[in-house]
Amino acid sequence: MLRIELLDWETARAEASRIRYAVFVEEQRVPREMELDELDPQCVHALAFPREGVPVATGRLLPDSHIGRMAVLKDWRGRGIGGALLERLVAAARARGDREVALSAQTHALEFYRRHQFLEEGETYLDAGIPHRMMRRPL
């Protein structure tokens, strides 16, 4: 059974940082100084816990309705965890009255976000040397 918790940064920091570091810094070679930022304390953070009890995925919802820092540890991908985490963040945005959510999707993940009703807009751009595309989903 998958459990997804919504937490503040102080509560989520250790585990969210561990997951984000593994995925973004180690796996994708994003510079460490770009990964954690001053926005984290302002966000709602989600952690996904499978049966084993150790979180394996994270994401955040910013005050401006953007979802970001979606990361699932490599060994846990393809099991629906990322989709469940994303939908929990969307539900949190809806519950607080947001009219839409937006995100900056790595282009290799566009189809994943399309399956969750996100629509592409604008041109492809580089962020940390990785191609991205802006996507939105009305709520």
Q: What do you see in this structure?
A:
- This protein is α+β, with helices and mostly antiparallel strands and 139 residues long.
- The protein has a domain at 3-98: 3-Layer(aba) Sandwich (Aminopeptidase), CATH 3.40.630.30.
- It has helices at residues 9-27, 32-35, 81-95, 110-115, and strands spanning 3-7, 44-49, 57-61, 66-72, 100-106, 119-127, 130-138.
- A seven-stranded mixed sheet has the order 1-2-3-4-5-7-6, sandwiched between helices.
Termini separation (Å)? 27 Å
CATH class of the domain at 3-98: Alpha Beta
Category by helix and strand content:
alpha+beta
The fraction of residues in strands falls at 25-35%
Tally of contiguous helical segments: 4
> Percent range for helical residues?
25-40%
CATH topology of the domain at 3-98: Aminopeptidase
Shape label: globular
What's the helix-strand series?
Answer: EHHEEEHEHEE
Outline the biggest β-sheet.
7 strands, mixed
User: Which architecture of the domain at 3-98 would the CATH scheme give at its second level?
Assistant: 3-Layer(aba) Sandwich
Radius of gyration: 14 Å
Main-sheet strand order equals: 1-2-3-4-5-7-6
Considering the protein shown, what is the CATH homologous superfamily of the domain at 3-98?
A: Gcn5-related N-acetyltransferase (GNAT)
Name the quaternary structure: single chain
Low-confidence blocks of residues: none
How many strand elements? 7
Mean pLDDT, to the nearest integer, reads: 96
